[in-house]
Amino acid sequence: MTRPEPVSVRELNAYIKSLIDSDGYLGSVAVRGELSNYKVYPSGHHYFTLKDAESSVRCVMFRSAASKLRFRPESGMGVIVYGRVSVYPRDGAYQLYCEAILPEGSGALQLAYEQLREKLAKEGLFDREHKKPIPRYPERIAVVTSSAGAAVHDIIRVLRRRWPLAKVILLPVRVQGEEAPPEIAAAIRWASEHRIADTLITGRGGGSIEDLWAFNDERVARAIYDCEIPVISAVGHEPDVTIADFVADLRAATPSNAAELAAPDVNELLQAIDSARSRLDRAVLKKVGAGRESLDALASRRVLVSATGFIEQRRLRLDALKTRLEGTLGFVERLKSRLEAASARLNGAADASLAARKNEYVRLAAKLDALSPLKVLSRGYAIALDAEGRAVKDARGVAVGERLTVKLNSGALGCRVEESYGEQ
Predict the structure, then answer these.
(1) How far is it, in rounded angstroms, from Cα 66 to Cα 88?
(2) Which class for 141: exposed (0-12), middle (13-18), buried (19 or more C-beta within 10 A)?
(3) What is the 3 state secondary structure string of the chain?
(4) Measured over all CA atoms, what is the biggest interatomic distance in the chain, rounded to whole angstroms?
(5) Dihedral sign computed on CA atoms, order 367, 369, 375, 377
(6) CB 158, CB 337: distance < 8 Å
(7) How many angstroms separate the Cα of 399 from the Cα of each of 21, 93, 96, 207?
(8) pLDDT, tens digit, 9 for 90 and up, residues 148-183
(9) Which bin fits 29, alpha (ψ -120 to 50), beta or left (φ > 0)?
């Protein structure tokens, strides 16, 4: 009998790996089981065992895939794991390389929402004693939302109508997608650090739980909690309640309602001034009239004729008081005129400011395009991106089996790392 040619252990493992990797069924599987020995390492990779009553399989989820998890996996949790089966050549053991994990039963998003709400509630982020009062007469109002959505237009429209004295500062961010949470959190923290406003509104229009998910992100919640500026949340419509709503100092049902809660109505204030002036006029006239009647009655009494000088002195004091009160009424009238004039000026200034900001955004967009690293691609270079869209700079930061996107000047390539020449 002819004996086969000997091969190295590495060659044997590589051959077995090639057989498994070429199997169409094993290239994309969904496996139901219970999580066991679930561990997250400093590298960001997740390692665990998936088991049922009779068997178990080792599993790994690389950092890039784990960053997309919408809930916190825990040992003992029933899940469905999606991924591929392959062999780790170093020890010859086969394992399941996970691309996604979904909980059985309730949806992943709902579970993540409940987990984060319970966690932050225990830490006290929702407690009423941490809520800051909303300023009654704000001079500057910051708005953290999309510059292209309906929410910002609703907020600006209501503020112009109700309180044109306030300057509106727009901090444009994405409000949907993976990049939205860090952008929203960074904008809120920047506004707080620089104290750019008296009140801050953040939110977006309504949508599905997926559309609103950025406002259920822990980074956004902690940025709102840490913000030195009072925050009004304005996410979605009345039925929608996000984590941001629980943390904010005040929750508004809609973006328009947030603007109403952020500022008073200047017309109502002017009416209140008119009403107060009328009441003051009546009170002054009544008081002066009563005083004069009392003095006249005293002066007419013969027994007090000798007190004429005293009475005249008191009459003069009343006249002086009347003059001072009339001066106060004049000041109130001048203040009313100033408010009306300022309202007209600010309406015009707001239109000019929005136009200037639009031109500035166009200029900055052109500048960013000129400096874009993607221009380099036209000269034959390529950029390797991990699953989070970050440029790969060091082979040691990429694990064998991890998926990469290689971006070319025209199009892109999806690749999987088979070997790494950096340090293991």
Answers:
(1) 19
(2) buried
(3) CCCCCCCCHHHHHHHHHHHHHCCCCCCCEEEEEEEEEEEECCCCCEEEEEECCCCEEEEEECHHHHCCCCCCCCCCCEEEEEEEEEEECCCCEEEEEEEEEEECCCCHHHHHHHHHHHHHHHHCCCCHHHCCCCCCCCCEEEEEECCCCHHHHHHHHHHHHHCCCCEEEEEECCCCCCCHHHHHHHHHHHHHHHCCCCEEEEEECCCCCCCCHHHHCHHHHHHHHHCCCCEEEEECCCCCCCHHHHHCCEECCCHHHHHHHHCCCHHHHHHHHHHHHHHHHHHHHHHHHHHHHHHHHHHHCHHHHHHHHHHHHHHHHHHHHHHHHHHHHHHHHHHHHHHHHHHHHHHHHHHHHHHHHHHHHHHHHHHHHHHCHHHHHHHCCCEEECCCCCECCCHHHCCCCCEEEEECCCCEEEEECCCCCCCC
(4) 152
(5) positive
(6) no
(7) 17, 16, 15, 37
(8) 989 999 999 999 999 999 999 999 999 998 899 999
(9) beta
Contacts of 228 (CB under 8 A, 6+ apart): 192, 195
Q: Which long-range contacts (CB under 8 A, 24 or more apart) does 105-114 make?
A: 105/78, 108/69, 108/70, 108/71, 109/70, 109/71, 109/209, 109/210, 109/213, 109/216, 110/209, 111/70, 111/71, 112/70, 112/71, 112/72, 112/216, 113/209, 113/216, 113/243
- 307-364: per-residue pLDDT in tens? 566 677 777 887 787 787 777 767 667 767 777 776 667 666 666 766 776 787 677 7
Token reading at 406? 């290689």
Which residue is listed with tokens 């100092």? 249
Q: Which of 274, 383, 371 is nearest to 329 (CA)?
A: 274
Among 66, 102, 151, 123, smallest CA distance to 243 is for 123
Identity of the amino acid at 63: R
pTM, 2 dp: 0.58
